[in-house]
Specification:
- The protein has a single domain, classed as Ribosomal protein L22/L17 (Ribosomal Protein L22, Chain A), CATH 3.90.470.
- It has three helices and five strands.
- Helix 1 packs across helix 3 and helix 2 packs antiparallel against helix 3 (44-63).
- By secondary structure, the protein is α+β, with helices and mostly antiparallel strands.
- The protein starts with a strand and ends with a strand.
- The protein has a three-stranded antiparallel sheet with strand order 1-5-2.
């Protein structure tokens, strides 16, 4: 019986490149261990990822008959969202484009 639960945070204002190393730390771990790891990680991505995991756990409680204590992180990934385009003034009256990147964070939980 394969009952996955999933939570997605879309249009999160962080670059996928910055959040992926944080995801690597918790991939495959039990939810409780992952939450403890993220609670003490200094990165912005750790805080955002914790919220998505909490949402996935709430989805598991609300929508399925899964045992919340036996959940583990089956898949976790960050896809590119749309980029906000900004301009920065440069020397000699020029301007260069700045890309403010966004991410779609996905967490899939499953029972052990």
């Amino acid at each position: 019986m394969d009952m996955e639960v999933k939570a997605v945070a879309k249009f999160v204002r962080i670059s996928p490149r910055k959040v992926r190393p944080v995801m690597d730390q918790v991939r495959g771990k039990r939810v409780e261990d992952a939450m403890n790891t993220l609670a003490f990680a200094p990165q912005k991505g750790a805080f955002l990822l914790r919220k998505v995991i909490q949402s996935a756990v709430a989805n598991a409680e609300q929508n399925t008959s899964l045992d919340v204590d036996s959940l583990y992180i089956k898949r976790v990934y960050a896809d590119d969202g749309p980029m906000l385009k900004r301009f920065r003034p440069r020397a000699l009256g020029r301007a260069t484009r700045i890309l403010k990147r966004t991410s779609h964070l996905t967490v899939v939980l499953d029972e052990e």
